[in-house]
Specification:
Elements lengths: L1 E3 H5 L2 E2 L4 H10 L3 E6 L1 H4 L4 E11 L2 E11 L2 E7 L9 E5 L4 E2 L4 E2 L3 E3 L2 E3 L2 E2 L27 H4 L5 E5 L10 H10 L4 E2 L16 E4 L7 E8 L8 H8 L8 H13 L4 E4 L7 E6 L15 E4 L5 E4 L4 E5 L4 E5 L3 E2 L12 E7 L2 H11 L4 H6 L8 H16 L2 E2 L3 E4 L8 E3 L2 H7 L5 H10 L3 E3 L4 E4 L10 H12 L22 H15 L3 E2 L5 E2 L1 H6 L19 E2 L4 H13 L6 E9 L7 E9 L14 H15 L8 E4 L6 E10 L5 E8 L1 H6 L7 E6 L25 E10 L4 H9 L6 E10 L8 E10 L8 H17 L3 E2 L2
Parallel strand pairs: 15-18, 30-33
Antiparallel strand pairs: 1-13, 2-14, 3-13, 4-5, 4-7, 5-6, 7-12, 8-9, 10-11, 16-24, 16-25, 16-26, 17-24, 18-21, 19-20, 21-22, 22-23, 27-29, 28-29, 31-32, 33-34, 34-38, 35-36, 36-37, 37-38, 39-41, 39-42, 40-41
């Protein structure tokens, strides 16, 4: 929201300068983002007059001008085509910073002639207007007149408006708060009714009161449209708005002045004598229209928008033709031009949620939508129409009809009880009842004193719902700097931070994954509903009623889709080998137990080409990382069952598995992602992933050791023995490895698979798995008999797992 200091002073009687206004706004809770003071920027520039202009001796397109300036006669080289003797323009001295060029002038020769300054164009001073040449000013201006005074430059304040304070989107609302903060006296003029001289020939019918409870309008005939007067153009251009014509400029002025968006229709372009407010329509089908087709509107921005039943539509032709989107933007078909003679002025109140969702769904933002989505004053519908009528009559002339009003404005905020003692209890401020009442009254609240007080919020403060809101209002107007500083009590030595077991495991997982080369990603807890459906979600109960974006309308059932899309974005930007992880919530249903915490990771393996052949299958590396992570978390990895063929639809059926402690406790899933899912998310495959449900990972039994002792290294050399076992094709090699490792846990240090064979010598449907068993003696060197006995135990353990020693 932007406004100029002079605009503010139309509503606030104050002598404060822009710096004091910005400070007062900040202390009152209005977050000032920037104060742009063109007066300071234009301070070095003054009016000058060209005495003579002659062609540059060394350049055909340059002229050497003798210029009468505030610093006396100056010789200045100028390349503007309109530089001529007698021209009054703007002069920049040596040392001046030219904002449009971003340079500071220095004295230097131009093609052999030294230029002692510069003659400026509009763009070089960052002013609106043509910049084909230097500025051409009125001849009656005196040499040396400051440029800021010539162009009417004045400070502009830009501040951020919180979503619950729509009244700050009008200069009058800002003035009201600053007056309450004792920066001046509020002097916003009251709105005087303009009597109509004839009945309105255009009526209004509301078919969707839930979208538009009240709609007022009137016809003004015989207007003369055209360019706005200079004061109005300057007021709008100073805050970055483009002046269009008188009728449109009036609506923009009132939107920023009183936070009251309006719209004007060219009455000659309306079809019929009735305006209908309804929801968007979908066709039922006809010979030339496909069933289920949404109606369309060509808006004032020249774009075509598809309108659905959730959007508010303004229509004419007995409600058949859409001519505007309620609270968002009017249609091109009824827009006003310089030839407009009769206008119908609309002033309505549109539901904030409907307006916000319409703008979000259509990616259509306008000043009107920005204000209606936050909730403008419903009691200012008719007064706003009267104010617009007065301005249109003053600027365009014409004759107004009587006002037509359809529907009824929403009720004003309800009164509630308030104990003024709560101000001190919640803030520590020591204020008497009269001061509290003075602040609230200046802000527009009605107070009936008693025990307790009864306070009624004004119509423009629908965000105030209870006593705590009033305490906040008193505190910010009195000044947060007045809040007492009370030190916290001394509790002795600072307590040590204590993490819950889950927080500790999250920290452990984060550090472990980072050490493995994964980069942490923090993504939304939402996703697109169609994307959620790919991962088993998309239930109606998990759809967000008011999403922050159209493609973030559903709670995510898994952290994988967001990570996949993040990896795809990295690939699009030249980094295809992403390895990302995220630790966060997923949502299985809307019950208290439906939220789970997961540790998810995605790898996009893109190994560089090498003459030696392909690298090791990345799936085994992912499994190794997953098992190492579970070990760090204290999971019973030795007891985990690896199950293939039972994973869900988003996993590749032949290259994925799950880790579980029994059929009902699935701890993790991992593997390659299904190509169908990657295609739906516009991601190039292959991609590998894992997802651990942290809630079901059992905590280690017993107390964790306080510190690790010194490493215990065996004094004897290890030895290895190789075994080849024939097992069923469907048998997982991991099951065989665990069985062999359990043959003698004291002596067997490791078991590794080094070969898998299928072919001649191995029966059909079977495979040969070769294992390297690492034996680590502890007390003494093993004898041959002890080694043979250990080998027999290994063969026996493998036999129990369904394997036979290959002959």
């Amino acid at each position: 929201m932007k406004f100029t200091l002079s605009w503010l002073k139309d509503h606030l009687d104050t002598e404060a300068e822009v710096a004091a206004v910005a400070d007062a706004m900040t202390m009152a809770g209005l977050e000032v983002e920037e104060v742009h003071d063109p007066v300071a920027a234009l301070a070095p520039f003054t009016v000058a007059r060209i005495v003579s202009a002659e062609r540059h001796p060394n350049a055909d397109r340059l002229q050497v001008c003798q210029v009468d300036t505030v610093d006396g006669p100056k010789e200045i080289v100028c390349g503007a085509p309109n530089a001529r003797a007698g021209l009054t323009t703007i002069y920049a001295p040596i040392g001046a910073f030219v904002p449009g060029l971003g340079v500071t002038l220095v004295e230097k020769p131009v093609r052999g002639v030294v230029s002692h300054g510069m003659l400026c164009s509009a763009s070089e001073l960052e002013l609106a207007g043509e910049s084909d040449g230097i500025l051409e000013l009125a001849d009656d201006l005196s040499v040396g007149t400051p440029a800021a005074g010539v162009f009417g430059a004045e400070p502009v304040i830009d501040f951020e408006v919180t979503p619950n304070r729509a009244d700050w989107l009008g200069v009058a609302g800002i003035a009201r708060d600053l007056a309450a903060a004792s920066l001046g006296q509020l002097k916003t003029p009251s709105v005087q009714p303009v009597p109509g001289t004839f009945p309105s020939p255009i009526s209004v019918r509301i078919e969707a009161p839930e979208m538009c409870p009240v709609f007022a309008g009137r016809l003004i005939r015989g207007v003369r449209n055209g360019p706005s007067p200079e004061w109005l153009q300057h007021r709008l251009t100073a805050i970055g708005l483009r002046s269009i014509n008188r009728l449109v400029d009036v609506t923009n002025l009132i939107a920023y002045d009183r936070c009251r968006p309006l719209h004007v229709y060219d009455a000659a372009k309306l079809v019929g004598s009735e305006i209908v407010v309804r929801g968007g329509q979908v066709s039922e089908g006809a010979e030339h229209i496909a069933a289920g087709t949404h109606e369309h509107l060509i808006a004032l921005d020249g774009k075509t928008y598809a309108v659905d039943p959730s959007m508010c539509v303004i229509a004419d032709a007995a409600g058949e033709r859409p001519i505007g989107l309620g609270g968002v933007m009017g249609g091109e078909s009824t827009g006003c031009s310089d030839d407009t003679v009769d206008v119908f002025v609309e002033c309505a109140w549109f539901d904030p949620l409907v307006t916000a969702q319409t703008g979000r769904a259509l990616s259509l933002n306008s000043d009107a939508q920005y204000r209606f989505a936050r909730g403008v004053d419903p009691a200012f519908v008719v007064p706003g129409l009267e104010l617009a009528t007065k301005l249109i009559l003053d600027l365009c002339g014409g004759e107004p009809s009587e006002i037509v009003v359809a529907g009824e404005a929403p009720a004003n905020p309800a009164a509630f009880a308030f104990d003024p003692a709560r101000v001190g209890a919640l803030t520590g401020l020591t204020l008497d009842d009269d001061r509290i009442a003075e602040i609230l009254t200046r802000l527009g609240f009605e107070i009936a004193r008693g025990t307790p007080w009864t306070v009624t919020p004004p119509s423009w403060r629908r965000d105030v719902e209870g006593p705590a809101d009033l305490v906040e209002e008193v505190a910010r107007i009195e000044g947060y700097g007045e809040l007492p500083s009370t030190p916290l009590p001394d509790l002795g030595a600072p307590s040590k931070g204590v993490l819950s077991p889950r927080q500790a495991r999250v920290r452990t997982a984060r550090r472990a994954l980072a050490a493995m080369g994964f980069a942490e990603a923090v993504t939304w807890s939402f996703t697109k509903r169609s994307t959620a459906a790919l991962f088993g979600g998309g239930d109606d109960r998990l759809v967000v009623e008011n999403p922050i974006a159209a493609d973030l309308d559903c709670m995510r059932p898994s952290a994988l889709p967001n990570l996949i899309q993040a990896a795809a974005r990295n690939a699009d930007r030249g980094h295809p080998d992403a390895a990302l992880f995220e630790i966060g919530p997923i949502y299985l249903d809307d019950s208290p137990t439906g939220q789970r915490t997961v540790i998810a990771g995605v790898v996009a393996p893109r190994s560089p080409r090498h003459w030696g052949g392909g690298a090791e299958d990345a799936l085994f590396a992912l499994k190794g990382d997953l098992m190492a992570l579970l070990d760090e978390l204290g999971a019973p990895t030795a007891s985990l069952q690896l199950v293939q063929g039972q994973n869900r639809d988003w996993w590749h059926p032949g290259r994925s598995a799950r880790l579980q402690l029994g059929p009902k406790n699935v701890m993790a899933e991992f593997g390659a992602l299904h190509p169908r899912v990657l295609k739906a998310l516009d991601a190039d495959g292959p991609m590998l992933a894992f997802e651990i449900v942290l809630d079901v990972v059992p905590e280690p039994r017993g107390k964790a050791s306080k510190a690790r002792g010194a490493a215990s290294l065996a004094p004897l050399m290890p030895l290895t023995r190789d075994f080849a076992f024939v097992v069923d094709e469907a048998k997982a090699a991991g099951d065989l490895v665990r069985a062999v490792a359990g043959a003698d846990k004291a002596l067997i240090a490791d078991v590794r698979v080094f070969d898998v064979y299928r072919g001649p010598g191995v029966p059909e449907g079977m495979k040969s798995v070769a294992l390297e068993v690492v034996i680590q003696p502890r007390e003494a060197t093993l004898t041959e008999a002890e080694i043979e006995a250990l080998s027999a135990r290994v063969v026996a353990a493998a036999g129990k797992a369904g394997a036979t020693l290959r002959g």
